[in-house]
Amino acid sequence: MNFVFRRDELLVEASSSVLPDAALCERIGLAAAALQPVWMETGSPYRTVCVDPGLEAPEGYAFKKLRSLFGVFDDEGMALAGRAYQIAEWARTHRFCGACGTPAERVAHEFCLRCPACGLSAYPRISPAMMVLIRKGDSILLARHANGPAARYTALAGFVEPGESIEQTVHREVFEEVGLKVGNLQYFGSQPWPFPHSLMVAFTADYVSGDIRIQEDEIADARWFGPGDEMPDIAARISIAGWLIRANLPMGWTAP
After folding, report:
1. 144 and 233 share a domain?
2. Distance of alpha carbon 23 from its chain centroid, rounded?
């Protein structure tokens, strides 16, 4: 099974979303050596690659946005596709040493590209990010992000900065984005999010103090929602944001 990505689009059979086989990859000019293993295990059939943005899909196939395949692939298949995308992006963006520009070489038996000149090693990038749902009595804080792909309300989120713990990121991002202080952080769960290489780590937290003051370049709207309020359009079930919100819905709310 081969994962062929064009940016964040995956090549699949147009009608069935089946992945291309080795013969099709050869037909569109992909040499076997260009395909990266998705797993290190000997005999694993999964390979992945990023192709030129100008490559057209062959007849009967289509490049489909990876996000659009949620619900088409099962959970295991979607997780595998996400892993394949991260590995393909790592290989595409680390072809040359970041220190001296020498072409990098693949290290056997691990996901590592190493410079033969200066020895710099590059591993697949993982960018940790926090997500937090803030509770205040029977209400929860939901926000609509200014640059989000959809006009949905969701939990607050932000990337970890150098020198921070994930808990410090929660406190900093909450104060920066909505001007609130929180406490009683409780770990909820995590989810790899391959757009392109995040790891979302989710928490709940209790409101401590402050009035909502949004960071306008990040947040379009943020407010408390509680029993009796009309439920907004919220994050889908495919994401940990959707799981987090649905696990903490105000009394009387039901979400699809």
Report:
1. yes
2. 30
Copy the structure tokens of residue 32: 């076997």
- DSSP label of 25: H
* Domain encompassing residue 87: 2-94
Over residues 84-113, the pLDDT tens digits come to 999 999 999 999 999 999 999 999 889 999
Question: Dihedral of the CA atoms 170, 173, 174, 179 (nearest 10)?
Answer: 150
Quick one: which of 191, 186, 188, 185 has its CA closest to 240?
191
CB distance 148 to 218 below 8 Å:
no
Cβ proximity of 189 and 202 under 8 Å? yes
Task: Give every CB contact of residue 126 below 8 A, 6+ residues apart in sequence.
Answer: 197, 198, 199
144 shares a domain with 233: yes
* Residue 149 pLDDT class (50, 70, 90 cuts): low
| 83/146 same-domain check | no
Enter the tokens of residue 106: 């693949």
Does residue 202 form part of some domain? yes
pLDDT, tens digit, for every residue of 13-59?
999 999 999 899 988 888 888 899 999 887 888 999 999 999 999 99
Assigned token pair, 231:
């439920």
Rg (CA), the chain: 21
Specify whether 131 is located in the same domain as 207: yes
Starting from the edge strand earliest in sequence, which strands make up the sheet with 47-50, in order? 36-37, 47-50, 2-6, 9-13, 61-65
Domain limit, last residue, from 94, 117, 140? 94
